[in-house]
């Protein structure tokens, strides 16, 4: 047994799964994004891995709030992420994983 190998049965991870409801399309734009995100930022300290839905980003839409989210995550030690590309037209899938630990593999499908 290698000293670097940790017994995985002793590892306890704290997961948070949340739908952030951050739409930007005119017909379904979500209200109170900033207020909801401020409450959400408070959850960073108590989570090791965050599985997020509806954190949509598109070409020139949602970029500022997304950048703020990533900065807050980084400040709280959630420095690893898996996310879809931002398309040139429309918005991405809105799925995002933030983690204190490396995300071993990421793939996306067009």
Keywords:
110 residues, alpha+beta, four-stranded mixed beta sheet, 4 strands, globular
Please provide a written account of the structure.
Helices cover 20% and strands 20% of the residues. It is α+β, with helices and mostly antiparallel strands and 110 residues long. Strands 1-2-4-3 form a 4-stranded mixed β-sheet, with helices on one face. The longest helix has 13 residues, at 63-75. It is globular, with a radius of gyration of 16 Å.
List the SSEs and their pairings:
Layout lengths: L14 E8 L10 H9 L7 E7 L7 H13 L4 E3 L13 E4 L11
Parallel strand pairs: 1-2
Antiparallel strand pairs: 2-4, 3-4
Which H/E pattern describes the elements? Answer: EHEHEE
Query: How many β-strands, per DSSP?
Result: 4
Discrete helix count: 2
CA gyration radius, whole angstroms? 16 Å
Main beta sheet, described?
Answer: 4 strands, mixed
Helix content: 10-25%
Query: Reading side by side through the largest sheet, how are the strands ordered?
Result: 1-2-4-3
Strand content: 15-25%
Report how far the terminal alpha carbons are from each other: 42 Å
Shape label: globular
Q: Structural class per helix/strand content?
A: alpha+beta
Which runs of at least 5 residues are low in confidence (pLDDT < 50)?
A: none
Mean pLDDT: 77
């Amino acid at each position: 047994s290698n000293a670097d190998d940790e017994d995985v049965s002793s590892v306890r991870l704290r997961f948070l799964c949340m739908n952030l409801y951050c739409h930007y399309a005119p017909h379904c734009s979500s209200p109170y994004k900033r207020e909801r995100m401020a409450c959400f930022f408070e959850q960073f300290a108590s989570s090791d891995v965050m599985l997020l839905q509806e954190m949509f980003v598109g070409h020139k839409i949602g970029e500022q709030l997304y950048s703020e989210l990533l900065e807050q995550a980084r400040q709280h030690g959630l420095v690893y992420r898996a996310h879809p590309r931002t398309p040139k037209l429309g918005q991405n899938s809105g799925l995002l994983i933030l983690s204190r630990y490396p995300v071993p593999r990421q793939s996306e499908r067009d």
